[in-house]
Amino acid sequence: MASQADSKDRQFLAVIGDEDSVTGLLLAGIGHVTAPPDNQKNFLVVDSKTDNATIEATFEKFTAERKDIGIVLINQHVADRIRHRVDTYTAAFPAVLEIPSKDHPYDPEKDSVLRRVRRLFGE
Amino acid sequence: MSGAADREAVFPTRQSLGLMKAKLKGAETGHSLLKRKSEALTKRFRDITRRIDEAKRKMGRVMQIASLSLAEVTYAVGGNIGYQIQESAKSARFRIRAKQENVSGVLLPAFESYLTEGNNDFAMTGLGKGGQQVQRCRETYARAVEALVELASLQTAFVILDEVIKVVNRRVNAIEHVIIPRTENTIKYINSELDELDREEFYRLKKVANKKQRDNAALDAEMKVKREAAAARDQENQAPAEAIEESGDILTAEEDEDVIF
């Protein structure tokens, strides 16, 4: 499995979420900006004005292009906007994690992994 | 192969029978080993799914507490600090490291979080007021992220295990339903062919023995006729008693010869 070989240098977390979630997680110290030439941030603030294409492109960038990200955190309501992309994402690395946000209560039924868990237990 | 049961293309010889028997034995050993592996993995898998379920619920609670403390910060600082924080984030303090754990030959990654020393992007945040709240908020969020990291490693393990279990089960089924029946069929085929050869050989030997017996009988009869003729001639020449004795001797000798055949 090639995906396990490159797991060593994945050392950052990435966030796609609303302002509060991103702010909080940045306060915890996960924010990282790569060296000056490209200045890639590992977080994206989504508000009502952000269009789905941007979210999708960022999700794509975090999951496929960047090799230094181990976990992608995404707000559940944001994940809902690109649900088809999140649901079809099955790779082990980076792990995609849906997190609750302040204004949107967490709904376990929508979570792509939890749904798989439930299906396996035949519920 | 001639529409018969599914079997391998081999010549029905004793050597290939031995090979097939060894193969069947190997397949059975492999089957039981794989089955055990699959069981071990499934046990682990169930354990992980249960823990994921728990961790997801815990995450909901932890994130709630964290957002509450962020609201406290916003209140204390008296304004939105989002921009300031997004601009001052430069280098990650909170990083993760992937470890690997071996479960019956499957490498499961586990993330481990660690803090790098010496870089603090938010030294100036909350300097004016609300510094304490900012500090507390950072701690709360750090704990939340730790829970998230744990959940992420469970989830990764879940995805990998899911895949591996599918592969192992496919192998177990292939051995159970394809390889073992096919090898057994081949062994049956070789045995039946060998039996057939044996019967043929036996029949042939019987035929040969029959033929030999018949030839011998004919030869014996011929010899007897010749001897009797010779004895008759002798009797005419010599004394009758002597001749009878001699011919009796010859007869016993002949019988001896018969026994040899």
From TrEMBL, chain A:
Which keywords does this chain's UniProt record carry?
A: Hydrogen ion transport, Ion transport, Membrane, Transport, Vacuole
Cell inner membrane: present as a keyword of the record?
Answer: no
Location of this chain's protein in the cell? Vacuole membrane
Q: What is its main location?
A: membrane
- Which InterPro entries does the UniProt record give? ATPase_V1-cplx_f_g_su (IPR008218), ATPase_V1-cplx_fsu_euk (IPR005772), ATPase_V1_fsu_sf (IPR036906)
Highest taxon of the lineage: Eukaryota
Q: Name one GO molecular function term.
A: proton-transporting ATPase activity, rotational mechanism
Q: How does it sit in the membrane?
A: Peripheral membrane protein
Q: Read off the Pfam families from this record.
A: ATP-synt_F
Record has Membrane as a keyword:
yes
Q: Which GO terms describe its cellular component?
A: fungal-type vacuole membrane; proton-transporting V-type ATPase, V1 domain
The record, for NCBIfam families, names: V_ATP_synt_F
Q: Into which family does the record put it? A: Belongs to the V-ATPase F subunit family.
Oligomer and partners: V-ATPase is a heteromultimeric enzyme composed of a peripheral catalytic V1 complex (components A to H) attached to an integral membrane V0 proton pore complex (components: a, c, c', c'', d, e, f and VOA1). V-ATPase is a heteromultimeric enzyme made up of two complexes: the ATP-hydrolytic V1 complex and the proton translocation V0 complex.
Q: Which PANTHER family does the UniProt entry name for this protein?
A: V-TYPE PROTON ATPASE SUBUNIT F (PTHR13861:SF2), VACUOLAR ATP SYNTHASE SUBUNIT F (PTHR13861)
Say what the protein does. Subunit of the V1 complex of vacuolar(H+)-ATPase (V-ATPase), a multisubunit enzyme composed of a peripheral complex (V1) that hydrolyzes ATP and a membrane integral complex (V0) that translocates protons. V-ATPase is responsible for acidifying and maintaining the pH of intracellular compartments.
- Full protein name: V-type proton ATPase subunit F
What is the scientific name of the source organism? Lasiosphaeria miniovina
UniProtKB/TrEMBL annotation, chain B:
Q: Does the keyword Coiled coil apply?
A: no
Q: What's an example of a GO molecular-function annotation for this chain?
A: proton-transporting ATPase activity, rotational mechanism
Q: Name one GO cellular component term.
A: vacuolar proton-transporting V-type ATPase complex
UniProt-listed InterPro entries: V_ATPase_D
Superkingdom of origin: Eukaryota
Q: Where is this region: Disordered?
A: 229-249
Q: Is Acyltransferase one of the keywords UniProt gives this record?
A: no
Q: Where in the cell is it found?
A: Vacuole membrane
**Record's bilayer topology term:** Peripheral membrane protein
Alphabetized Pfam families for the sequence: ATP-synt_D
- Where does this protein chiefly localize? membrane
For this UniProt record, give its keywords in alphabetical order, as a comma-separated list.
Hydrogen ion transport, Ion transport, Membrane, Transport, Vacuole
Single biological process term from Gene Ontology:
vacuolar acidification
Q: What does this protein do?
A: Subunit of the V1 complex of vacuolar(H+)-ATPase (V-ATPase), a multisubunit enzyme composed of a peripheral complex (V1) that hydrolyzes ATP and a membrane integral complex (V0) that translocates protons. V-ATPase is responsible for acidifying and maintaining the pH of intracellular compartments.
The record's similarity note reads:
Belongs to the V-ATPase D subunit family.
Q: What is this protein called?
A: V-type proton ATPase subunit D
Lineage of the organism? Eukaryota, Fungi, Dikarya, Ascomycota, Pezizomycotina
